[in-house]
C-alpha cells in the first residue's frame, strides 16, 4: 500500500506551546502534535488520511514525535514502522470511528460543548465500577455495539462505567 522508499520526510516544527499529553495526538496552535512510544522500533511513520506519510523524529526513551502544521481536529491518521505494510491505530487515540483496527481521529477536547453543568456526580459508597475497554468489550469494538450490552451490566449490578479506548 505504501512505497516506503519515497515517503516524504517532514520538517519537524517546534510547538508554540508545551504538549500537555505524554503520548497521542494533540491540537496545538495551528498544528497537531503527535507522539508515540515504540521503544523496540528504530523509525516510525505517520500516515495522514491514508495517503501522505511523514517520518517522525526519534526522541530519547523510545518516543517518536512530529508536529504538523495545517492539521486540525477530525484528521484521520495511522502509524507504521517502515518494516511492514500494516497500518496501526494510535494506542492513545481518543476516537476510533471504524473500530480498533481503523484509523485514529484527532480530537480537540477544548471544543467540546458540555451540557451537564447540573450533574453532581454519584457517591463513591455503593458504586459498582466496571472498567470497559471499548475496543475489546464487543466483537465489533465500537461504542454502538457496546450500547447493546449495557443492560447486561446493569443486570449484574454495575452502576458506574469507566470507559477506556
Task: Give an overview of the whole structure.
The structure is a single chain. This protein is mainly beta. Helix content is 9%, strand content 28%. The strands form three sheets. It has a four-stranded antiparallel sheet with strand order 1-2-6-5, with no helix packed on it. A four-stranded antiparallel sheet has the order 4-3-7-8, with no helix packed on it. A hairpin with a 4-residue loop joins strand 5 (57-58) and strand 6. It is globular and about 50 Å long.
Helix amount, in percent?
under 10%
Low-confidence stretches: 1-17
Q: Structural class of the secondary structure composition?
A: mainly beta
Question: Proportion of β residues?
Answer: 25-35%
CA radius of gyration: 18 Å
Count of extended strands: 10
Give structural attributes.
165 residues, 9% helix
Topology:
Blueprint: E1 24-28, E2 31-37, E3 45-48, E4 52-55, E5 57-58, E6 63-69, E7 76-80, E8 104-105, E9 129-133, H1 134-137, H2 143-147, H3 150-155, E10 160-164
The gist of it:
By secondary structure, the chain is mainly β.
Amino acid at each position: 500500500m505504501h512505497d516506503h522508499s519515497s515517503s516524504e520526510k517532514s520538517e519537524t516544527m517546534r510547538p508554540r506551546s508545551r504538549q500537555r499529553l505524554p503520548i497521542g495526538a494533540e491540537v496545538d496552535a495551528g498544528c497537531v502534535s503527535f507522539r508515540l512510544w515504540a521503544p523496540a522500533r528504530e523509525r516510525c511513520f505517520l500516515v495522514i488520511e491514508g495517503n501522505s506519510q511523514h517520518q517522525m523524529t526519534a526522541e530519547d526513551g523510545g518516543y517518536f514525535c512530529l508536529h504538523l502544521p495545517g492539521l486540525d481536529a477530525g484528521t484521520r491518521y495511522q502509524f507504521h514502522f517502515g518494516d511492514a505494510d500494516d497500518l496501526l491505530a494510535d494506542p492513545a487515540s481518543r476516537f476510533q470511528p471504524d473500530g480498533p483496527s481503523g484509523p485514529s481521529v484527532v480530537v480537540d477536547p477544548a471544543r467540546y460543548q458540555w451540557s451537564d453543568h447540573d450533574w453532581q456526580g454519584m457517591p463513591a459508597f455503593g458504586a459498582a465500577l466496571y472498567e470497559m475497554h471499548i475496543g475489546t468489550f464487543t466483537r465489533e469494538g465500537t461504542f454502538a455495539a457496546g450500547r447493546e450490552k449495557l443492560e447486561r451490566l446493569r443486570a449484574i449490578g454495575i452502576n458506574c462505567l469507566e470507559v477506556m479506548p
